[in-house]
Amino acid sequence: MTILTDSTEYFEETFKGLNNAAQQFIGITFEECEFLDCDFSESWFRACKFTNCDFARCNLSLTDMANSQFFGVNFKDSKLVGVDWTRADWPQYYRDFELKFTRCMLNDSSFYGLTLNELVLEECKVHDADFREGDFTDSQMTHCTFDRSLFVHTNLTRVDFSDSTGCAIDVLANEIKGAKFSTEEAIHLLTSLGIELVD
């Protein structure tokens, strides 16, 4: 069984089937690593670095990412419920961290106040998430469900919401210039303007 060691650097390694729920990891660097079918739920990654890594079919729900850094990381078919991404370390000299989530569950996650330009969310369930005060310019958030997620003072300039549903976005309280919505969702946006549509 593979044991992750604190303050260690891992390069081009594949970790498969790790069961590391509710464990603590400190100062580990992962570069070009792959995680397959791993369970890190309720674990604590403190001051770790993930660069050009891939997670597939992993459980990272309620994981604490305190002071950890992410760049070029892809999550596929993974569960990341209740993750507070604001606890991670996002250097101000970057705006695009090349993060991508595909067919992931991101319910109850917080992206409050973060600048994550060109963020990619594809076919994800993003219920009760917090995007307030964030900057997600040029992001792709397609085929997702955003039921009860919060968008207030959020920069959604040129964000592609094609085929996404549940987007309760007040057009007066958010920046949505150049954003794309499916026709049905665009009609819902008009409710924030007090407009009544008639046949």
TrEMBL record:
| Pfam families, per database record | Pentapeptide_4
| Protein name, entry field | Pentapeptide repeat-containing protein
Which organism does this record belong to?
Alteromonas lipolytica
Q: Which InterPro entries match?
A: 5peptide_repeat, PA_immunity-related
